Amino acid sequence: MWAQAALGETTSNDSGEQLKKINTIWVLLAAFLVFFMNAGFGMLEAGFCRYKNAANILTKNLLVFSIATLAFWVLGFTLMMDDSFLGVIGGLKGLFLLNEQGFSEYKKEITIPLKAAFLFQLVFAGTAATIVSGAVAERIKLKAFLWFSFFLVALYYPITGHWVWAPDGWLKQRGFVDFAGSTVVHAVGGMAALVGAWLLGPRKYRREEDGKMVSRYKDDGTRVPIRPHNLSMATLGCFILWLGWFGFNGGSLLKADAEQISHILLTTNIAAATAGLTAAFTTSRLKYFNNKPELSMIINGVLGGLVSITASSAYVQLWAALFIGMVAGRLVVFLVYLFNLWKIDDPVGAISVHLGCGIWGTLAVVLSNQNKLLCDQIINAPLCNSESLGVIKIFQQLGIQVLGLFVVLLFTLAFSWVTWSILKARIGIRVSDEDELKGLDRQLHGVDAYQGFEKRKV
């Protein structure tokens, strides 16, 4: 009898170890997919910009993840996931990942090694910083961008991430829901990008009448078009990001549950596909886009759908994913037009995609209803209150989502404004007119992205 009991305990322990290994393999694979999204961002941004700035774009994308790695390892992760101080910020016991005891509460929630969880959270933090890169492209100083990225990943992103994802984060305790980062990653990155693009000002062109470098937005409300130099490259970037998003959302479960992962990947794909089709249909009906399905808008439509479903991909039904994607596809097109009207120059549409659709995705969580997984993860979510009527629960959850969005975006706006302003005063954030005219590849890096090719007219 004792032997049988011992054998049963051993078998149970072995089973638990095997499950931990399987969970770890899945989360690491998902992290690799999210890491590969950096290649997608690089291709997308370089393709949407002019050929004379392509090498600069790729340089930023390489360096920003390097900066993010060190910033998150040294400080960011401990501020985000270390045992909480009043639900507002993590402690400092986990600096450099030297002491795992500080992550005692977080380790109770995960079924994988802490270092595997760190790697997965790291690639998310890197994504938030990379979002900023596209919106400030073609006129940002490299040093200023890298300094801002360091502060974003080391301080601002981890603090808001702690509110939402740490076990004792104050927003999580109040029932705020963001499964994989529509708010934490995308809206935060989009807000930081908006502040940077606004303070930088729009790109310039050389006016033929007097040879002066002036804003592409004219006083009469029109704008000088600046065309993407390689839509093939941008489309490849979109497909890479689409692929990487399966790891982004699927890995956020932090365990290898076949049924739940399959559902997450399907809702993710449906939202992306629907958003791309909606953007194509919308642009083909608008005079602003010459009544034609505009490829750059289709690309951003797909990405907008992916951003929008990120907050609720594990919780919503398939019909809801379809609806979320439809709204996202139209929203992206409208926001790109609106930001141009406001003279906020965003070369790749990052603000529209990540901030705009991040907000929509966060609000669309209310379509989840009383999902079992949601109620297991966020026990205080109003949607999980069995004593309230359905409509009341939806409005209560919507109120929590609006509150969370407001405080996260206000915090990000304030600290982004302060950081960009200090950098602007101390080292400057914009390249010279001469550098912008001749191209950052040659002026800042001394290289050509397309060595041996020459374009006659710029």
Question: Concise description?
Answer:
This protein is mostly helical.
What does this structure look like?
This protein is mainly α. The protein has a single domain (19-445), classed as Ammonium transporter fold, CATH 1.10.3430. 66% of the residues lie in helices and 2% in strands. The strands form two sheets. It has a two-stranded antiparallel sheet with strand order 1-2. A two-stranded antiparallel sheet has the order 3-4. The longest helix is centred in the N-terminal third of the chain and has 47 residues, at 2-48.
Main attributes of the structure:
two-stranded antiparallel sheet, Ammonium transporter fold, mainly alpha, 16 helices, globular, 458 residues, two-stranded antiparallel ribbon
Structural class: mainly alpha
Count of helical regions: 16
Order of helices and strands: HHEEHHHHHEEHHHHHHHHH
Helix coverage percent: 55-70%
Total number of strands: 4
Write the layout of secondary structure elements.
Layout lengths: L1 H47 L5 H28 L2 E2 L3 E2 L13 H6 L4 H22 L6 H24 L4 H4 L8 H19 L3 E3 L6 E3 L15 H20 L7 H26 L11 H15 L8 H24 L8 H14 L8 H6 L12 H37 L6 H6 L1 H6 L13
Antiparallel strand pairs: 1-2, 3-4
Helix pairs in contact: 1-2, 1-4, 1-8, 2-4, 2-5, 4-5, 4-7, 5-7, 5-14, 7-12, 7-14, 8-9, 8-10, 9-10, 9-11, 10-11, 10-12, 11-12
